[in-house]
Amino acid sequence: MKKKGLLAMFERFSSGQFPQFKSLWTEDKETSHEPGLQTTSTAAPEAAMPVILNDNPNGIAVGLDVGSSKVVAVIGRLDTNRQIEVLGIGEALSEGLTRGSVSNLTKTTTAIKEALAAASKTTNLEINQVIANYSGVCNNLDQRGVIIREDMIRDIRAEDIIRLKKEMEGNPYPAGEQIVYLEPQHFIIDDEPDIRDPIGMSGQLFESDFHVITGEVTALSNLHKCVRQAGSGIKTIYPTAIASAEAVVCEEEKEEGIAVIDIGAAVTSIVVYKSGIMRYANTILLGGNSITADIKQFTGLSNKQAELLKKTYGSVLPEYSDPAEIIQYKILNGTKDRFISKVDLALIIQSRMEELIGAAYNDIVQALNGRSLTCGIVFTGGDSALQNLRKLGEQITGLKCHAGTPILHLKTDLFGARFAEKLNNPVYATSIGLLKMGLTKLV
Asked: Phi/psi class of residue 223: alpha, beta or left (left: φ > 0; alpha: ψ in -120 to 50)?
């Protein structure tokens, strides 16, 4: 019988041979941090240059991913080839969110401060505004916006689209909800429908059918409050799924039809594109933490040990695991060895992941309304790295699936290369996507 070394790993943790993982074996009195996590004093660096995104003369933006397991701040700008040059990164553990929304203002504010301070220190930039994400519950609505242009001869410009979007704010929405994001499905000029790009055209009656994503007012307000108390401000908020998609798919894939499933710690975010247009975005209240909780219940391990077991040996398909491979472990304060086969571990993970993918796929099918997804599904997010996830996704959905990492639009040569290896990880999809949207979205 083959034995895996989780027991030996845990015993070496307790004996201090791996002090950086000590908190996985015993509950530390001091706050523990993940390896490689950057945490610094929250004081702004001396002689820092302010980054004010309203004017932004230096072409710099800051993406701030406020997640349930960590907060990530990424600073960057566009190079001459319109690739994103990452200038700095800061991270901090996050313990103040529940199901994608702020549940503890103090803890969330502290994590945001630490992440922004670390990013600021690496770049010598003072961060005054950020592009942030919303991971809470979403509602999808289809509504029409209409404006009358006084000068029907003047070409339609970006300002007209901005005005059309602002008109949408006056529409009725469910109680306790407000617009997080809206995208025109097509434009109508003087009753001429199905116009994809109205810029440069003329007309008086300017309309659009919008797909509107709304979120909870209290959740959005608390997010603004935490960022403000951390010494910064939010310029724009985007749903997590839309931000992640910006980092891991290209415009051609959006045109042909693609869905992105971002599996986070506490929630899973979904977005669907077809004909280059966002058709649907939503949040499912299931994530990697649900899998970890199942493993914890089955094995008796602590939460940190169960998470390590999942990441080290986890797979979503038991048929690809060797039945002879047995993982040996010991619970906290336990004296006897315990065992779990890799097949049993995969069965635990498979059960929850099937539920998660099935729920996401049901949303995708409804959103498509008979349309096809030529480019299939992209999995990203921190828990998308589980072995054989792509195969399970294809079995459940019948669509081709692949993993998405956020270096598609990044500069990876010369100066940008110092962050390329670190950022080639689905954990950073949302933060890189927010940065990209902050640098490229005009209306």
From this structure: alpha
Alpha helix (H) residue ranges in 154-302: 158-168, 217-229, 240-248, 251-256, 288-299
In a domain, 264, yes or no: yes
For the segment 333-342, the average pLDDT, to the nearest whole number, is 89
pTM: 0.84
Closest by CA to 135, choosing from 286, 248, 283, is 283
Tell me the residue length of the chain. Answer: 443
Instruction: Please calculate the CA angle 132-137-142 and round it to the nearest 5 degrees.
Output: 95
Query: What are the CA-CA distances from residue 268 to residues 329, 356, 396, 418 (Å)?
Result: 30, 8, 17, 30
Please give the radius of gyration of the chain, using alpha carbons only, rounded to the nearest integer.
23
User: Which residues, including other chains, have CB under 8 Å from residue 211's CB and lie 6 or more apart?
Assistant: 140, 141, 142, 182, 183, 185, 277, 278, 279, 280
Residue 383 near residue 293, CB atoms below 8 Å: no
Domain residues for the domain of 265 are 250-404
What's the angle, vertex CA 295, arms to CA 291 and CA 297, rounded to 5?
115
pLDDT at 162: 93
CA of residue 166 relative to chain centroid, distance: 26
| Confidence at 357, pLDDT banded by 50, 70, 90 | very high
Taking each helix axis as running N to C, give the angle between helix 342-368 and helix 303-313, from 0 to 180 degrees, rounded to the nearest 10. 80
CATH, residue 393: 3.30.420.40
Task: Tell whether 370 and 304 lie within a shared domain.
Answer: yes
- Residue 361 CA to residue 354 CA, distance in Å, equals 10
95-138: per-residue pLDDT in tens? 999 989 999 999 999 999 999 999 999 888 889 999 999 999 99
Tell me what the mean pLDDT of segment 1-29 comes to: 42
Instruction: Verify that 283 and 181 share a domain, yes or no.
Output: no
Q: For the chain, what percent of residues have pLDDT higher than 90?
A: 73
How far apart CA 441 and CA 420 sit, in angstroms, is 23
Number of domains the chain contains: 2
Residues 254 and 400 in one domain: yes
